[in-house]
Design brief:
The protein has 180 residues and is an alpha+beta fold. It is built from six helices and four strands; from the N terminus they run H-H-H-H-H-E-E-H-E-E.
Length: 180
């Protein structure tokens, strides 16, 4: 997992809970990296899971909620850091449909070692988008938060429902996004 995901998480935790909380969380973790990340480094995704798990214990906020909140936060940070990805799409559905075929392709050019999830999309009429998330990492809730961040960015009223599926070779969740 790319370091930007770690550095942005640490920034969000500090902004939301304070620097002392981030220090306490890192102190309670046993991370191979020691909790020192660079935005361009590559780190084991299990470290992110450990950080969020310990943060959950310190904050009394369920892991699932923290991960979604972080995904939502990271979407706005991606917009600030990589505005070129937002120049074409005019709606949440258009943006989400471009994630796998455009955005992830461009990310791979910058970071060839990035382990990215796959997204398949299918429109069902004007008001429904199906997104199938597949990954070797258990970050469907993170993807959910990113989708919600996208919806909020485009100021649209879209409901997200997700159902975990057995893919046999990793994690899979089918998201149904419906305009309200």
């Amino acid at each position: 997992m790319k370091g930007i995901v770690f550095t942005e998480l640490m920034d969000m935790v500090e902004a939301t809970f304070g620097a002392d909380m981030m220090d306490d969380v890192l102190e309670d973790c046993s991370l191979e990296s020691g909790g020192a990340y660079t935005s361009v480094g590559t780190y084991d995704h299990k470290e992110l899971l450990e950080i969020v798990s310990i943060l959950s214990k310190h904050s009394d906020i369920p892991v699932k909620d923290l991960v979604r909140k972080y995904g939502h936060h990271l979407f706005s940070r991606f917009h600030a850091l990589m505005p070129q990805f937002f120049e074409g799409p005019k709606s949440a559905f258009e943006f989400l449909e471009s994630v796998h075929s455009y955005i992830h392709v461009e990310v791979k050019k910058l970071y060839p070692d990035a382990a990215l999830p796959s997204f398949e999309t299918e429109r069902q009429g004007e008001d429904t988008l199906i997104m199938i998330y597949k990954s070797q990492c258990p970050f469907a809730d993170f993807a959910h938060g990113l989708m919600q961040g996208c919806i909020d960015f485009y100021k649209e009223n879209i409901r997200i429902e997700g159902e975990d599926k057995n893919s046999g070779d990793g994690f899979c969740r089918v998201f149904t996004l419906t305009k309200q």
